[in-house]
Amino acid sequence: MNNPCIGCGACCSYFRVSFYQGELKSVGGFVPDDSVVPINMFYVAMKGTEIKDNKRCVKLSGDIGDCASCSIYEDRPSPCRDFPASYENGIGLYEERCDKARIAHGLKPLKVSDWD
Questions:
Q1: CB within 8 A of 49, min separation 6: which ones?
Q2: Is the predicted pLDDT of residue 14 greater than 70, yes or no?
Q3: Whole-angstrom distance, CA of residue 87 vs CA of residue 96
Q4: Which residues on adjacent β-strands are paired with residue 60?
Q5: Which of 115, 111, 101, 106 shows the shortest CA–CA distance to 12?
Q6: Which of 3, 20, 28, 82 sits in a 20 to 30 Å window from 44, CA-based?
Q7: Cα–Cα distance between 40 and 37 in angstroms, integer?
Q8: Which DSSP letter does residue 85 get?
Q9: What's the pLDDT at 1?
């Protein structure tokens, strides 16, 4: 099965990735502590995603839309694990946030056929 997420990286360079600090390795989680910045007393964000303009997760490698990949994929935080791509789970499951990020980076919105 094709996976249009592989090589994309648009979401990693468009949204703030914030999550509860309990996901950090230092407290029993899996996200490397050196890859985050504090947001408040309880939450952190992936470095590079906390800024307003020109977001790019510090753990994103490669070029968006071509050969982008997450360098901590197995240890990525819950917002990344839970982020659905358009039509990833079948027909009728359009995900506006995915296509919004793709369009912002000059990529076409996903179609059902992209998963064939």
A1: 12, 15, 16, 17, 18, 55, 56, 57
A2: yes
A3: 10
A4: 70
A5: 101
A6: 3
A7: 9
A8: P
A9: 56
